[in-house]
From TrEMBL:
PANTHER family according to UniProt: L(+)-TARTRATE DEHYDRATASE SUBUNIT BETA, L(+)-TARTRATE DEHYDRATASE SUBUNIT BETA-RELATED
Molecular functions per Gene Ontology: 4 iron, 4 sulfur cluster binding; fumarate hydratase activity; metal ion binding
Domain named Fe-S hydro-lyase tartrate dehydratase alpha-type catalytic: residues: 11-284
Protein name: Fumarate hydratase class I
Classification via InterPro entries: Fe-S_hydro-lyase_TtdA-typ_cat, Fe-S_hydro-lyase_TtdB-typ_cat, Fe-S_hydroAse_TtdB_cat_sf, Fe_dep_fumarate_hydratase
Keywords for this protein: 4Fe-4S, Iron, Iron-sulfur, Lyase, Metal-binding
Cofactors that this protein relies on: [4Fe-4S] cluster
Amino acid sequence: MSIIKKQDFIDSVADALQYISYYHPLDFVQALEKAYHKEQSQAAKDAIAQILINSRMSAEGHRPICQDTGIVTCFVKIGMQVQWDSDLTVQQMVDEGVRRAYNNPDNPLRASIVADPAGARKNTKDNAPAVVHIDMVPGDHVEVAIAAKGGGSENKSKMVMLNPSDDIVEWVLKTLPTMGAGWCPPGMLGIGIGGTAEKAAVLAKEALMDPVDIHDLIERGAETTEEKLRLEIFDKANKLGIGAQGLGGLTTVVDIKIKSAPTHAASKPVVMIPNCAATRHVHFHLDGSGPAELTPPKLEDWPEVTWEVGENVRRVNLDTVTRDDVAQWKMGETVLLSGKLLTGRDAAHKRIQEMLNKGEKLPVDFKDRFIYYVGPVDAIGDEAVGPAGPTTSTRMDKFTDMMLEQAGLMGMVGKAERGPATVESIKRQKAVYLMAVGGAAYLVAKAVKKARVLAFEDLGMEAIYEFEVEDMPVTVAVDAEGNNAHVAGPAIWQARIEELDAQLKA
């Protein structure tokens, strides 16, 4: 029998969450490196390079890989012979570990959890509570798998109740393109099959805790139904040409993870949950001998990848740029932004809408300005701002007409695609949408030289800031003519992949 002490468990959870905030799993880094060397799409290759560089920088600097430090999911398997030395429940101990990790002054993590989700949606300020799954198993130790899951990828989760004769692969291939790029590919897909609706969802989430091993599976060959599905979906999903950040390319997924459970004869529940390019999870065991010891990876295990700005880069001064200038920008161009850049996301846009509806004067003049969809991590030391990567832009789509027509914005910066109506609005207003790389938050933050809050300070990370940036790299995703990289890129690369396959078979 093992006696697990409360403090050992809490300390282990807190240490694990700090650890995964700045250390990618090495198997994932190695999978991205393979994708980088294989990639033929320059836009996708550049995006993967930035993700890998950001990963190494985060490991070196012990700062978050992504500004969205996630909702905590914790799988706790408790041996039947374990005894607890604790006056708290397992849920309460996990939550206390979360609080300590997210309020660590040396590396504060962004608190993103809101209570009363159908009502006031008030931030809990400490990122608790976590989502905890508890399972009693044979043995005398405790096994914990813990992850921090970003909202952009979690929001793209899909669930379906298929008929028993329906094809799972067909559903995945039909569904994956509808998820857009808000889940920040390349990443993994966790698929849960069977059980009931909620069981399939838990299976899908737990599958994402497994290591990246698809290339080992390819070499040895599939033996089980799940393994055969993994290989088929991996091959066909990458042939869709979605590519890194949805810009078109050879690698959309670096692995497919599947778990299944027996189900009702009339049912086939399937849940698909993506993990983004900021994949963060770790496993540890407790046997009563003390807190878990997590061994830091060696920095030399990261690939030596560099990213250089091409000759055709367009340098832009945000303080002097005009609408005539913006009209010359072309879809797919790399732009380096310098000057003053506003920020704002969901809560700020909602408040702006309320003020405009009431005829109130806005606290910030948006006319002919650019806004960056971001909720940064708090700064430490001499940082102007903490990790500050882009949030999913589609959430702001419903506000775009208002911001372009009424507030007078000239451009927007975010991640992933925009909806068709928003693209039309951008075209109509001769504005522009620029895309920063999701999953490269620490790298992006290095371009921010100064930051100050201009309005809505009570919204915390959702307040309106003014950043002063220097050479912040972005891609023209939708130009003033309405040309859309997230439509053109995948279409081009899907066709090229088909050509490459045809050549190999010839």
